[in-house]
């Protein structure tokens, strides 16, 4: 059995981001993921030679970590369409057209029918991913209706229970971009800085205790 001092639980963007930072610094770790794939809520499905995103599909240019990751791994990005007409259905099922701004309409087949006519109710394939019902992502507490990303803060008192041995790196715990892809990388960076700092301290302690250390009396 392989042994390691660092276990990363979860191979979503935060876990993979943390693993990449530790790997670049030559720090040993093991990553554990319940699914048979990495990426967490970043997922796509293949159909007829094309791939369709079921998770996040866009980000802002003011999110530096995600922008840098796309550049580092050669991921092509493009600006959101801003030409054409906005077409959407509000909560009262009233259809709004011709408001002068293009947008991607994602809705149920019934809604597509109301927007585009009966032909839109019969797509060649329908793929729906509700992450709140995906057992490796959500719990029963996520079934409620919310208008904003949840804010989760682990207090120092709770952290002290594990004496700094358990660190939480989920996107929702990021102080600036909580709940977003950038937040996952933000929190991964914070955890990596802590782990690398502790690793450096341990190495310094071991070096100081070495018989070959110049600091020995």
Automatic annotation (TrEMBL):
Segments crossing the lipid bilayer: none
Gene3D superfamilies reported for this sequence: 3.90.660.10, FAD/NAD(P)-binding domain (3.50.50.60)
Amine oxidase domain segment(s): 104-196
Gene Ontology molecular function: oxidoreductase activity
Entries under InterPro entries matching the protein: Amino_oxidase, FAD/NAD-bd_sf, Flavin_MAO
Family indicated by similarity: Belongs to the flavin monoamine oxidase family.
Name of this protein: Flavin-dependent amine oxidoreductase
């Amino acid at each position: 059995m392989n042994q390691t001092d660092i276990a990363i639980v979860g191979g979503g963007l935060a876990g993979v981001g943390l693993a990449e930072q530790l790997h670049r610094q030559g720090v040993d770790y093991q990553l554990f993921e319940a699914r048979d794939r990495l990426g967490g809520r970043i997922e796509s499905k293949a159909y007829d030679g094309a791939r369709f995103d079921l998770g996040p599909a866009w980000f802002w240019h003011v999110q530096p970590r995600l922008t840098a990751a796309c550049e580092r791994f050669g991921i092509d990005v493009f600006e959101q369409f801003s030409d054409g007409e906005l077409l959407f259905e509000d909560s009262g099922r009233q259809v709004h057209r011709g408001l002068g701004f293009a947008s991607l309409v994602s809705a149920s087949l019934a809604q597509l029918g109301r927007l585009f006519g009966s032909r839109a109710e019969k797509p060649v394939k329908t793929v729906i991913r509700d992450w709140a019902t995906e057992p490796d992502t959500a719990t029963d507490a996520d079934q409620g209706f919310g208008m904003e990303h949840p804010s989760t803060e682990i207090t120092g008192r709770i952290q002290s229970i594990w004496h700094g041995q358990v660190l939480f790196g989920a996107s929702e715990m990021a102080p600036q971009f909580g709940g977003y892809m950038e937040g996952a990388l933000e929190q991964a960076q914070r955890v990596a800085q802590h782990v690398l700092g502790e690793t450096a301290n341990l190495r310094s302690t071991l070096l100081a205790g070495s018989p070959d250390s110049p600091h020995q009396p």
